UniProtKB/TrEMBL annotation:
InterPro entries: AB_hydrolase_fold
Organism lineage string: Bacteria, Pseudomonadati, Pseudomonadota, Alphaproteobacteria, Rhodobacterales
Protein's name according to its UniProt entry: Alpha/beta hydrolase
Gene3D superfamilies linked to this entry: alpha/beta hydrolase
Length: 266
């Protein structure tokens, strides 16, 4: 039996299509809210994500939020319902700190939550800036779900959650990642990291080296210096440093190697 199964027993807080909200008790006064991503099976609930890392062996309370419609929080009334359920849990269990975490769509939803209620941390891996066709016309993924979104209360992430909440954001640098992270605004409370050569699914690669656990733990505990060192060792750069790296890389790739002279002459 895995640690997750031994330590986490989930209770349904809400189960009405398209939203499922489940909770697992912890020992501390900290709550981690984990949003699921799109997943791989269209007609099945996406699996829970980050719950083992979020729980920290039962220390933290965990709420897992799953949207089978994959609406990027645009379903009517969804955001307000989520805020109500979390607020009820906070009051019932004496929670003093709430952190949101997610990847891809789940990361976008975590950012939306930060605009709707006070949070102590937001940890978001590969969030989209938008999936609206007018905002990011070059985005061609997840079309089946996106075409079913009929209203857009959260059309794009032009405004990030305000300070003082720390936001830790992570992207790759492939074209499908750049189209989103380059559109995100900068902010004093945002620490944005770009991983060289990484695509949208690079979070899976971080698990193998135990890097993901270290990043999440450092972010939950708000240790930015520790997080920065882990990210740097894993091939990530601060967004402001990545711009210089990309310019240097383009320069050296574009250079023509000088030909070796056949003769040095007299």
């Amino acid at each position: 039996m895995s640690d997750q199964k031994k330590l986490l027993e989930f209770t349904l807080l809400h189960d009405e299509h398209p939203l499922r909200i489940e909770s697992a008790l912890g020992e501390s006064s900290r709550l981690i809210v984990s949003f699921t991503s799109v997943g791989t099976e269209r007609d099945q609930w996406p699996p829970k994500e980050f719950v083992g890392l979020a729980s920290q062996r039962g220390r933290n309370h965990v709420i897992c939020i799953t949207d089978i419609s994959r609406s990027w929080m645009n379903s009517k009334g969804m955001a307000n319902l989520i805020v109500t359920k979390i607020s009820d849990y906070v009051l019932e269990h004496g929670i003093t700190k709430v952190t949101a975490i997610g990847t891809s769509m789940g990361a976008y939803n975590a950012l939306i939550l930060g605009r709707k209620m006070p949070l102590s941390r937001i940890i978001c891996f590969t969030p989209q800036y938008s999936v609206h066709p007018d905002v990011v016309p070059e985005e061609t993924r997840w079309l089946w779900f996106r075409r079913r979104i009929t209203s857009w209360p959260f059309k794009q992430m032009s405004k990030l959650p305000k300070p003082p909440v720390p936001i830790y954001m992570f992207h790759g640098d492939t074209p499908d990642e750049q189209m989103h992270w380059q559109r995100f605004p900068t902010a004093p409370n945002l620490k944005h990291y770009i991983f060289k050569g990484a695509d949208h699914n690079f979070v899976g690669n971080l698990k193998g080296a135990n890097t993901l656990r270290k990043i999440v733990a450092a972010a939950i505990n708000n240790r930015p210096d520790r997080l920065g060192k882990v990210v740097l060792r894993a091939g990530g750069l601060r967004r402001e440093d990545y711009a210089d790296y990309a310019l240097a890389e383009a320069h050296f790739k574009g250079r023509t190697k000088p030909k070796r002279p056949t003769s040095l002459g007299d």
